[in-house]
Amino acid sequence: MSVLAQLGLDGNPFSFLVSLFFLVVFFLFYPRIMLMQIMWKLEKTVQDLERLDEEGKKVVLGEISKKPDKKTTDAVNRFFEFFMITPVDLDPYGVVRKVEHLVNGQRHRFRSFVRQVAPDLPEEKQANIEMGLAGGISLHEISKIVKHYVEVVKKTKSFQIAMILQMQLPLIERMSKSLFKGTKALARGHPIGDAAGPYMVARMIGKAKVRDVGDDIILARKDLDGKELFLLKSKGPGGRLGRPGYVIDKLARQYRFSKIVSIDAAAKLEGERTGSVAEGVGVAMGGIGVERSYIEGVAVKNDIPLDSIIVKMSGEEAIEPLRKVITDAYPLVMESLERSLAEVKRGERVLVIGVGNTSGIGNDGRGIKDAEDFAERMEREYQARKKKEA
């Protein structure tokens, strides 16, 4: 009885048996109750993701045609299942060329599909739809994967898998909502955060003469303190990434460059300020790595220093509509560029690359006014939303 008293049961055997009964019931049924709660949340998330997926498709279809017919709708729905199989890399020699071949094939398929479903639209509008499709496919893939694991949990009744998936939900939901916003912006030709690099270079170009050098890349030459700058960015204002690495490889055979400077958006850590600028070395360029490989190969072959300037933002901000806090980083980017060029002698050539998606960004200083107005509007909406949530 002393033990029961220590348990707070005052030596009452009936209370002990009742407590023991509830304890057994708790251990037997608590995991099931928890699984039911988790499954309710997971299924709700799947419904939300599927809704975003369908709305993303509607946005793309709406940009193709105000009243798309069944044939076009079915074609877009099928294309949302598009995939790319990565090449064999057991023998790493030549794998970059394999990946490049597949990426070029993917680009051709996207372009060809848009021309089939929207043959009468202008070239820049077609480029926007290509990017909208890319964003929509990413959102569609997330929706399918989450639904797949929810169905696995239903079949296996695995509490552990459900817990792992539940722990990832906040990040999945944040990324999905950002992808939906990015899909809308890209399909409609609006700039996104990833356009920071092209925006900076377009502003540097100003009124300088611009020429198309192929592979969706434009080039302008400009003097800065006696140093000749070769300014490169993707052709705008349609959504394009271009092939800067391939173009730089060709330019390096014609000109001797003293330095290559890349400007790009880069992921910040939580707690860092959006729009802050950092300097480093190497090629500031994301993606699968083919273009960066070309640039690094040129730099090594010709012994050209590689400098990079990044504009910090979160992963979500990179795919969401462009904010003014990012365009306001231009003076800081110019300060960083001037520091990078301090060791370059007068008369020498420097290659400056604006890396990123050029959606909504024109090719020179005159073509960025709409992007700046859009960024100001997005900044006001963002601040109003933050104030409402506070």
Number of distinct helices: 13
For the record, the CATH architecture of the largest domain stands as 3-Layer(aba) Sandwich
> Can you tell me the overall shape?
globular
The fraction of residues assigned to DSSP E strands is 5-15%
- Structural class category: alpha/beta
Radius of gyration: 27 Å
Overall mean confidence score, pLDDT = 90
Please give the domain count.
2
CATH class of the largest domain: Alpha Beta
Percent of residues in helices comes to 55-70%
Description:
By secondary structure, the protein is α/β, with parallel strands linked by helices. It has 2 domains: 28-187, no CATH class; 193-389, Rossmann fold (3-Layer(aba) Sandwich). The protein has 13 helices and 7 strands. It has helices at residues 2-6, 13-64, 70-79, 95-117, 123-156, 159-187, 196-205, 244-251, 290-302, 315-319, 324-327, 330-340, 369-389; strands at residues 210-214, 217-224, 227-234, 257-267, 277-281, 306-313, 349-354. The chain has a 7-stranded mixed beta sheet. Helix 2 (13-64) runs antiparallel to helix 5 (123-156), helix 2 (13-64) packs parallel to helix 6 and helix 5 packs antiparallel against helix 6. The longest helix has 52 residues, at 13-64. The radius of gyration is 27 Å and the shape is globular. The model has no long low-confidence stretch (mean pLDDT 90).
Summarize, please:
The protein contains 13 helices and seven strands.
Write the layout of secondary structure elements.
Blueprint: H1 2-6, H2 13-64, H3 70-79, H4 95-117, H5 123-156, H6 159-187, H7 196-205, E1 210-214, E2 217-224, E3 227-234, H8 244-251, E4 257-267, E5 277-281, H9 290-302, E6 306-313, H10 315-319, H11 324-327, H12 330-340, E7 349-354, H13 369-389
Parallel strand pairs: 3-7, 4-6, 4-7
Antiparallel strand pairs: 1-2, 2-3, 5-6
